[in-house]
Structure formats: C-alpha cells, structure tokens
Amino acid sequence: MQRNTVVRSMHDLGLAMWFGGSLMGAVGLNGASGAVSDRRERTRVANVGWSKWTPVNAAGIAMYLAGSIGLLAANKGRVATQKGVAGNTIGKTVLSGAALAVTGCSRMLGAKIEQAGDVPAESGVEPCAETPPDVAGAQKRLRVVQWVIPALTGGLLVLNALHGEQQRPGQVFQGVLRRLLAG
Known about the structure:
The protein contains six helices and two strands; from the N terminus they run H-H-H-H-E-E-H-H. The protein is an all-alpha fold. It has one domain (5-182). The chain has a two-stranded antiparallel ribbon with strand order 1-2. Helix 1 packs antiparallel against helix 2, helix 1 packs antiparallel against helix 5 (133-165) and helix 2 (42-74) packs antiparallel against helix 4. The longest helix has 33 residues, at 42-74.
C-alpha cells in the first residue's frame, strides 16, 4: 500500500485555507467593516484585512493545486479503472477552475476598491449614496462574488469526501487484515 500523506495534506490544508479564509472574510471581515464608525474608513479596514490575507490565501491555493496534481498522479490507476472516480475527478477539476476564476475576479474587484482610497461606504462590500459610482459597482459585484468562493470551495470539500468514500474496498480489507495479524 502506498501512502500519499504529504500531497494529501497539502491538498486538504490548502483547500481548508481557501474555503475558511473566504468564508471568514465574507462573514467576519467584510461584515465587521460596517461597524467602523467613520464611513470613510470602512473600505480601508476591509482592504487592509484582505491585503494581509491575500498572500496566505495564495499559498493555500498553491498548496491545494500542488496536492491535487500529486494525488492525481498517485491515483491515476484508480481514475482510469474505478467506476465513478474519473467523473468525480472531472467535477473537482471544473469546480477548481471556477473557484480560481472567481477568486481572481474577487481580487481584481478588491484592488479596484482599494485604489479608490478612503471613500464613504456602508461596509467593504456595501456602498452608500456618497460612494463613487465605479467603486459602488465594484462593491456590488464583490458582495455577490464573496459568497461564490466559499460555495465553490465547499463543493470541492464535498467532492473530496466522495473521493474518500470511493477508496478501493480491497485497500480497506488489507489494512484491517494487517492490523489483526500484527496484533
């Protein structure tokens, strides 16, 4: 039996960072920015938080992608021969691509808001009447996109669980038998 602990850990930890960070940002960071008393500082507070998170998020995404490639290489035989594994792998690939695209879109929208400087707003993703129109448009799009990322990465977590369930029964049997014989 071959173990893939390093690439599996990279895959799972990277995906956890991507999912958890995006969900916390949407709920916590963007939500908390609306509690800042000065309306002109609300976007700055959200932007500073996202700027600090971006390198960590990029590292998590890179870990996830490297782990995904490693797992695909390690399980290419299962993908080719075990019913259902190829379909699940294709589904994960499509969702990964969509999550990457939406994450990139989110970063571009965030950069547009950040470049505007301190503008009045209800929160980092909610404009007010005094918000400049171009910033308000970016905020409105970002307000939707912020929820798409955890939805897509959450879908990846579900497909990852399915991959775990698709492990070959023969591998489980061999592991149980070895444990019984060892004692």
